[in-house]
Specification:
Strand content: 15-25%
Radius of gyration: 17 Å
Bound molecules: uridine-5'-diphosphate
Strand order of the largest sheet: 4-3-8-7-5-6
Number of helices: 12
Distance between the termini: 19 Å
Largest sheet: 6 strands, parallel
Order of helices and strands: EEHEHHEHHEHEHEHEHHHH
Structural class: alpha/beta
């Protein structure tokens, strides 16, 4: 296990805060390093547990951060707490603001075609000094033209929001084409464009964002079933360590 990490069901989470982590990413970008960041929640951990290939993919990342409150709870149950949530969406908006201030460039892959159109507009309005190297929706058949475009435009940041496991598989396969911070962001483009609303502040403060989303989009409700399984697996892991 890497130093400064907490292991939950075989996945090593970086012990960090949003501030420290984004500060480190700024440095990585300025030094043209190649970084692969995974933002993981309990669903991803359980998926990795069942799919060894995917576990290997995320283990090849330079950092895995705690995207969900379930990860914070899991770390606590195991007696190895993590300082706070470091969500993909918070990293995303922080990097956009920093990229705007520092004239950096970014490539965007993911979400439905109409969301990518809206995304271009939001980026122009909110982050005009960020250089947009490319915007591609996430429903493509052929990856090669996108990969070639990333290579040609050599962005500082590559945001991949096609959902797991697609986004991490894509990053692990193609990150070598250019030195950048490559990060998987789930539904972040939907949130930034207002296509999907983030939970009201109170729900966020109560750490019930996941419940809010399930109530708003009942098709997601089934996905919550993984949570009790995850908690049981974590409790089982704790007992084995005793
Ligand atoms: N998506 C995509 N390509 C696909 C499947 C999904 O770009 O082939 C997008 C989808 O439109 C949505 C995001 O990926 O914007 C997944 O969002 P979700 O909130 O489900 O993320 P997860 O919880 O899987 O990280």
């Amino acid at each position: 296990m890497k130093a400064n990490t907490v292991s939950i069901l075989g996945v090593s989470f970086t012990k960090t805060t949003l501030h420290n982590f984004t500060t480190k990413l700024h440095k990585d970008i300025n030094e043209h390093r190649n970084e692969f960041v995974v933002t993981a929640n309990p669903e991803i951990v359980m998926y990795a547990k069942k799919h060894p290939q995917y576990l290997e993919t995320i283990r090849s990342a330079d950092a895995i951060v705690a995207d969900g409150i379930g990860i914070i709870i899991g770390a606590k149950i195991l007696g190895t707490p993590l300082p706070q949530r470091v969500t993909g969406y918070d990293i995303f908006t922080e990097l956009l603001a920093w990229g705007h201030q520092n004239h950096k460039s970014a490539y965007f892959i993911g979400a439905k075609p109409e969301v990518s159109q809206k995304l271009k507009q939001v980026l122009r309005e909110k982050y005009p000094n960020l250089r947009v190297a490319g915007v591609q929706d996430g429903y493509f058949d052929d990856e090669q033209p996108i990969v070639a475009d990333i290579q040609n435009t050599s962005p500082d940041m590559v945001f991949v929001a096609t959902g797991y496991p697609k986004q991490e598989t894509f990053i692990a396969k193609y990150r070598h084409v250019t030195n950048a911070v490559w990060i998987g962001l789930g539904g972040s483009f939907d949130v930034l464009t207002g296509t999907v609303k983030r939970a009201p502040k109170l729900w966020q403060q109560l750490h019930l964002e996941w419940l809010y989303r399930a109530v708003k989009e009942p098709s997601r409700f089934g996905r919550l079933m993984v949570l009790p399984q995850y908690l049981l697996a974590v409790i089982h892991e704790r007992q084995q360590h005793k």
